[in-house]
Amino acid sequence: MRKLFDGRAGCPATARPGRPSLSARLLNPIGQQTAQSWLASAIAERRLGHALLLYGPAGVGRKTLARYAAAHLLCMQPTASGPCRGCRSCLAAADDSHPDLHILRTPPGKRGLGIDAIRGLIEELALPPRGVDGRGLGKVAIIETAGELGDEAANAFLKTLEEPPENTWLFLVAPRRSQVLPTVRSRCQPLRLSLLDPREIEAVLRAQGLHDDEARRLAEGCGGSLGLALDMHRTAGIAPLDPGLLLGAVPEPEALLRDLALRVQQLKRETDAPGGSHEWRRRLLRVYFAELLRLLRDAQALRCAAAVPPLSPGRARLAGRLARLASRPLENGAQAVEVAREGLARNLNIELVVSRLAAHLPRGGGR
Ligand SMILES: [Zn+2]
């Protein structure tokens, strides 16, 4: 397989009876029952359209589900409900080493998917399927950053999208339908993925060995995105929003909000430090924005004496202090963070997103 873009490092495809291999476990979508069963029956009944647009927020399993469906289409012993997850084809699909599964995404540091990548894909799809044993069943391409297809690349791709070679399926993945160029999205069957249930996320985190309290805290704070919960866990040691630190530093709620604005700018400088990759900056900011939003929401809930999930002592004191502010600055703050998160998801310039947020975070304003 000519790699169009290097995916995850492959691990040896060895299946041991009794225990699912790592690869088999990778092909294990979480939640999304409606989309999953719709896909499974469309594939089993051979009525799946040849171009699908899987869209929904990041971290809810869009790419996992696309891989799962790809594995189902290429599986040597498919079941009615999905791929067998044990045959050589399934294991290769899970490892990104299947000769008939092509995965395309924007390379790190690049702003979009260029025409060369799309031309490479079109050439690949024109070749007959090879299969893991020389008997190919079909070909699948997953475009993980379909929202970042440039005009030129999209135009080059339209004919393939409309009339792909026989037994070829295309999965396009994007946060929102509107992010995909109209000429592209009008040629795809849309399939929307929703936010995950916090209980599903908590179960996954526990299965990964996290303590119950930590799993619950992350599941509640990640807004239905398993990807974000995992990011929050990975960056926990360097989380810039430390309630204890903030509490020690700022006595008054107005000053606290000013301090939050400063910290956003400071965070930007930290993430600009040499060695910090573009993707890492975005990941840190996503975590920070999610924490900030949760804090503002908690403060609003406390202010209205609404029930809030159990907070850690530091966070409770911080939210309690913010709750002394009027409702308007809290609401404006939360809205500004929402806009910033949206900007980040749309891959807007980080500097622009951060300076806009810093400018719009409320500066207090009395009760
Ligand atoms: Zn299989």
Entry summary:
The protein is an alpha/beta fold.
What does it look like?
- By secondary structure, the protein is an alpha/beta fold.
- The protein has 3 domains: 22-192, P-loop containing nucleotide triphosphate hydrolases (Rossmann fold, 3-Layer(aba) Sandwich), CATH 3.40.50; 197-231; 235-360, no CATH class.
- 51% of the residues lie in helices and 7% in strands.
- The protein contains 16 helices and 5 strands.
- A 5-stranded parallel β-sheet has the order 2-3-4-1-5, with helices on both faces.
- The chain starts with 21 loop residues before the first helix and ends in a 7-residue tail after the last helix.
- The protein binds zinc ion (ZN).
- Zinc ion binds at residues 75-77, 83-84, 87, 89-90.
- Zinc ion (ZN) binds next to helix 4.
| Count of individual domains | 3
CATH homologous superfamily classification of the largest domain: P-loop containing nucleotide triphosphate hydrolases
The tally of strands reads: 5
Q: Proportion of β residues?
A: 5-15%
The topology string of helices and strands comes to HHEHHEHEHEHEHHHHHHHHH
* C-alpha Rg (nearest Å): 23 Å
SSE class? alpha/beta
Query: Largest beta sheet: what is the strand line-up?
Result: 2-3-4-1-5
Task: State the helix count.
Answer: 16
Q: Under the CATH scheme, which class of the largest domain? A: Alpha Beta
**How would you sum up the global shape?**
globular
Second rung of CATH, namely the architecture of the largest domain = 3-Layer(aba) Sandwich
